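W.,

You were right to be curious about this one. When I first looked at the sequence I had no strong expectations either way, so I just let the prediction run and decided to look at it fresh. Below is the sequence, 316 residues in total, followed by the output.
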Amino acid sequence: MAGPGNQALNINSVVAQHANLEITNHGSDWYYAVCALMGVATLIFMGLSFRKPQGDRVFHYITAGVTGVACIAYFAMGSNLGQVPIQAQFVRPGNRWVRPAGTREIFYARYVDWVITTPLLLVDLLLTAGVPTPTILITLLADEIMIVTGLIGALTRTTYKWGFWTFGMAALFFIAYELLVDARRHASRLGGDAKRTFLLCGNFLIFIWFLYPVAWGLSEGGNVIHPDGEAVFYGVLDILAKPVFGFLLIWGHRKISTSQLGLRIRDRSHITSEKYNPGSGPHDGVQTEGPGGNVGGHNAAPIGHPAVGHPAHANV
């Protein structure tokens, strides 16, 4: 019979198969606590967005999306759902924390979270640095490779899991190069608050991300720590990489407009007047959609000036 307190593990014990080694109520409580933190952060980010014009809210919305998705994933893990039992490669009978393992609980819900949220974190950073679109796309592809190979490795019981771990590390090093070298160069061209915000948030995020393979090696990979310890390790990293990173980024963007970054986001509140006055040309202060002048590399025109070789638009 269900008593007071967290009964998620008891209630959901009938859902799917369960591993010999899985979270306890302590792990479930921790997951729910992180879930609540992610939810509160999402509401705060959305609330802060109202202090900006609609065209300058893109970073608030992206960051709120990150913590919102994480909130759902942590609710699933706290409920002991979104998991599958996998035979552990290393049983470790002498380890008092993991000696019950034959099978270990693997949360695929965690990877569903990451495959959505980690590209959004990179978009936050790369847009802040004014990185060209092709570079953004290849960096996001590397990120997806990193997450998917981590998931496949976690679901593999043989030594081949470490091959997938290696592929993921190669992708992580590529991402690190893009953030620490290429994106830094673009941010330096922008200068000012954009550069400072990118350097702070970029260095912070890549440092945190390099701790994730360590957590993977101790949990899904090497079966060294208990799933409750895994929950705390990943939870702390996710708190740093999502809400803490998000607050640093949003604080840095408080005096930055999207036009300063070369982003042209159309204010569609003027769409009616444009529709009924098609020959009047662009309205003052209204930007066309698409990348701004400094997005695209050395040959891009400065913001507010026509590109070389292309005549400026004139009213007819």
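Here's what jumped out at me. The CA atoms of residues 176 and 206 lie 6 Å apart. And, maybe more interesting for your project: The beta strands are 83-87, 103-107, 263-264, 290-291.

Coffee later to discuss?

I.
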